[in-house]
Specification:
158 residues; alpha/beta; 1-deoxy-D-xylulose-5-phosphate synthase; transmembrane helix; transmembrane; Rv1476-like
Length: 158
């Protein structure tokens, strides 16, 4: 079993390519160009430039992947960094909200095909979503204000 690359090695790879690999797997020669094309073709304009780190193993502490993504973004100046393992997809972004990133992560990890997962992340991250709890709370407050005003008006009208 190979050990995963260091942050410095991954950042060096990201300096010359939008995709970095944690190990020197023979499949990387085919997967790398496919992921580069997916990153170029996906709708990432709102959170570009994007880099992706592919690891063969998931660490025992998932939060370490978010730290890796954050450190890689800081080292490389990338706006968005995605980290993908066979079990986990993690992202960090300066332009996307936490909710957008999490939506993208969920759709990305649901795709076993990493290339399809890149498109799924971009589509989900760009999707507008209504904050329903806030919308309901505002509607309740407006209705309460209207009811109060109507009650006061009726009371003064008598």
């Amino acid at each position: 079993m190979q050990t995963e690359a260091t942050l410095e090695e991954l950042a060096s790879q990201l300096a010359s390519s939008p995709v970095a690999f944690g190990t020197d797997n023979p499949l990387n020669a085919e997967l790398g160009p496919a992921l580069e094309a997916a990153l170029a073709d996906a709708n990432t304009d709102a959170f570009a430039p994007v880099g992706m780190i592919v690891l063969e193993q998931t660490p025992p502490v998932i939060a370490d992947l978010r730290d890796l993504a954050q450190d890689a973004a800081a080292e490389t100046g990338l706006d968005t960094v995605l980290v993908r393992t066979p079990q986990v997809a993690v992202g960090v972004s300066d332009s996307l909200t936490r909710a957008q990133v999490e939506r993208g992560e969920r759709t990305m990890v649901a795709e076993p095909d990493y290339v399809v997962g890149v498109h799924a992340f971009a589509d989900a991250a760009n999707t507008f979503s209504v904050n329903w709890p806030l919308t309901v709370a505002v509607a309740v407050l407006v209705l309460a204000a209207v009811a109060t005003a109507a009650a006061l008006s009726a009371r003064h009208g008598d």
